[in-house]
Amino acid sequence: MSTGAVANWGLMGSRERIVQPQTFTFAEGSDAFVLESGSRLGPITVAYETYGVLNRERSNAILIAHALTGDHHAAGKNHPAEKAPGWWDDLIGPGKPFDTNRFFIICSNVLGGCRGTTGPASINPETGRPYGMDFPVYTIRDMVRVQKALIDHLGIERLLLVAGGSMGGMQVLEWGVTYPDMMDGLLPIATAGRMTAMGIAFNEIMRRTIMLDPAWNGGDYAPGKGPAQGLAIARMLGMVTYRSDELFTARFGRRMTNNQPKAYFDFDNRFEIESYLHYQGDKLVQRFDANTYMYLCKAMDLLDVGRGRGGYEKALASIAARTLFIGVDSDWIYPPVYMIEMAEIMKKAGCDAGYWELKSPHGHDAFLVEFERMRPVVASFVNGIADMRQV
Amino acid sequence: MSTGAVANWGLMGSRERIVQPQTFTFAEGSDAFVLESGSRLGPITVAYETYGVLNRERSNAILIAHALTGDHHAAGKNHPAEKAPGWWDDLIGPGKPFDTNRFFIICSNVLGGCRGTTGPASINPETGRPYGMDFPVYTIRDMVRVQKALIDHLGIERLLLVAGGSMGGMQVLEWGVTYPDMMDGLLPIATAGRMTAMGIAFNEIMRRTIMLDPAWNGGDYAPGKGPAQGLAIARMLGMVTYRSDELFTARFGRRMTNNQPKAYFDFDNRFEIESYLHYQGDKLVQRFDANTYMYLCKAMDLLDVGRGRGGYEKALASIAARTLFIGVDSDWIYPPVYMIEMAEIMKKAGCDAGYWELKSPHGHDAFLVEFERMRPVVASFVNGIADMRQV
């Protein structure tokens, strides 16, 4: 099987890697998708991209899962004028660890996202208006079940690997527990198998900040409008948790935007770290929906791979795939200790699990930054799986 | 010298330690106080409490400095029905490390506070309305200079010791650098000598959250009204930074307030950590002013003991008092590394400086919790200073 988009990618070559997003719609009519909560949702459209060519045996597929504000545009460009390529372009492409000369890479916008897949900002067919806060609560497990529908649609029975960082890593782990026989490898990065109380705390504060913005209006706002300030502040907070004290000190220190001595005492004179965060906050507002942000945070809060499966240890022990956890030493929002704990639980149960620590001052976001250091480790793991599978 | 309140404390004995807050007003009329910024402010009323009796030589005075949301009520009770005693009552009292049988303890509400000392919530004599955002920006150094005026008023020429945690510790360090000949000891706890970029980041997010609340209204609100929701959310965020992942996991884990299986997917079903933070946020609103919160955070942002003094190292090296830094191993918002750095800078310069690390899962707030562990260390340091001074 080789879709148009796949051929497109293949034909364009590595210098101009143009990729066309695709969509897949299912759960239509009476065939609605039943969420974990019991709520029914449909139809569901999934936006996705693929890179490389699916081989005849359909044995070279790798699924990449994105993080909170990420999307299905993981590599290449959608058009030549695009400023920057997809978010993991440093790892996905010809000769890169996720080698498009060897593998068929799939990345989809998650269920409940706002970048093409059905979510709170989508039109509710029953009302003709955006779902808003009427969208049902969904979980990481639901996201994975929707990805499974896409994989089925692509005619793939078994994945070589599922990989992703942060919320992407949560999907990786849910894949491993929900469909243990469907992949040879798992690569969860800077993530958790159950959300910590600290993580829930930050998510709740971000949600409340969005809800405090009068423009939120109970979640009922016109597309493109909405609580810009609330979402921007939530993003500012998110950004702080994704970085480290060490990085901020080195990069911004105590420098101010206005260094006139008298300006030091101006209430509104910003330190450079403040300007940076405001810039990041405002930037997210341009491309992200506030209700969706809240639902995605809620989905992360509800993450516990052991829920309804006899507990955390038992669920992790049921993973059949070779698993490499990658943690970041300076990541304080998804502390390495919990990834080490998962690897230990799996090893004790006889699973093929390992842990590698990325040394970086970049904090949680190191998985989106430290490509030089990650590349050999990821390449070795991916190729090891592929060699085992004789791809 | 022995004021009424001091006698009161002495007479009531240790079982019913009742203390009366006092006030001192200065900078009246044309004698306005000139802030670091050059702005003039007056009159300034300072609310304070004292515990124990000032000796004839006036040589047994200890100044305690409070943290962001603290106040001058550091020990005892203001009336018998009061629920809990002052915030450092476990360390201040007869036979305690700050032994009121031996020492005369002073604690004042900081300049720009909202618990009795002149601040943004006070009435601006020029307008007859609360200062609000018309209050001038002040610094930790300004707070210390106002405390100096109080110390002068009490007829004390030299303090035995200045002690405090968090924002209190910042005042301790500014005391040591601003008035190096005025004390024998300094006890800065869980604090910094210059605000980190990470600390500034959190403070800015808290300020913006307050300002996002429509009830903030540019800082113009009636006393007792104001941005309750914004301040509550800011406090929730503050609380998260004062604690640790380890503590939250042990205390709240992933427990929900409604444990019915179906309630798991309710958007509004709170995890216990969320309920706890909401409770803390709402509680602060009852006793704290939002504009004041913003100004105090700004004062912390502006903290750099080296500013205008030839730099950080030179300023710290100018401290003459024996100094013991206490850091908390799990404190990630005021990381021990910066306190260790300050102690090293001082030692290299020939200062009498040491560092002790409090091992605790309580994070930054350990200085308000871990009294059993702190007591012997604080007592030993305080008594060492007092013995040296032959008090």
Mean pLDDT of chain A: 95
CATH superfamily of the largest domain in chain A: Alpha/Beta hydrolase fold, catalytic domain
The unreliable regions of chain A are: 1-8, 10-14
Largest interface (C-beta under 8 Å): A-B, 55 and 55 residues
- Order of helices and strands of chain A, N to C? HEEEEEEEEEEHEHEHHHHHHEHEH
From the N-terminal CA to the C-terminal CA of chain A, the straight-line distance is 16 Å
β content of chain A, as a range? 15-25%
Quick take:
The structure is a homodimer. With about 400 residues, chain A is α/β, with parallel strands linked by helices.
Descriptive overview:
- In chain A, helix 2 crosses helix 3 (about 165-180) and helix 4 (about 195-210) packs antiparallel against helix 5.
- Chain A folds into two domains: about 5-195 and about 305-390, Rossmann fold; about 200-300, Rna Polymerase Sigma Factor, Chain: A.
- Chain A is of the alpha/beta class and about 400 residues long.
- Chain A is built from eleven helices and 14 strands.
- The two termini of chain A are about 15 Å apart.
- Helices cover about 35% and strands about 15% of the residues of chain A.
- Mean pLDDT of chain A is about 95; it is low at about 1-10 and about 10-15.
- The longest helix of chain A has 19 residues, at about 370-390.
- Chains A and B meet through helix 4, helix 5, helix 6 and helix 7 of A and helix 4, helix 5, helix 6 and helix 7 of B.
- Chains A, B: Transfers an acetyl group from acetyl-CoA to L-homoserine, forming acetyl-L-homoserine.
- Chains A, B: Homodimer.
